[in-house]
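Recap slide: Acyltransferase, sequence and predicted structure.
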Amino acid sequence: MTYLANQQSEYRVITDFPENVQIGSNTVIMGNLAFKRFHSRKKQGLIIGDHCTMDGVHFDIGEKGQVEIGDYCYFTNAVLLCELEVRIGSYVVIGWNTTLADTDFHPIAPAERIADAIACSPLGKTLPRPEIVKRPVVIEDGVWIGPNATILKGVHIGAGAIVEPGAMVNRDVPPRTRVMGNPAQIIGEV
């Protein structure tokens, strides 16, 4: 297992990632911000399989969040935002500036959004935040996700699907289909 951090254009090996991170053999993690926002308290907050490359990936994982990634995956400069669960299969490629999020991180309804803003402000220290919806994101084996795509909460992407660059995916993608656009629409089969 190898964890690399970029420091002044040279990579150096670092082995001080969080204890609840499990990294498979021949897996490489590059970038000095990978675990800056990693707060998972799960026994296995992050599991990455064998022969993966995580180049500049940000693992922004909340206290109750868990991310599981299969074998032979390549992600570059992706952001994984997880408060509940993100599961990614094997042989998955994720292009740069792609974001996966299993929650909106704030309520959607206007009144709840105002209550949340007050609870998060210095004036609302004792006020509870409204419940925020969280739904797992699941990406099956052999999926390719192009640069600048966004995968939202509750989305299940079927095996062998292709998400075109810049797509905003807010609903399930059937296996072996291509989607593009905002919101993403099926444009063909693979």
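The longest strand covers residues 2-7.
Residues 110-120 form the longest helix (11 residues).
(End of recap.)
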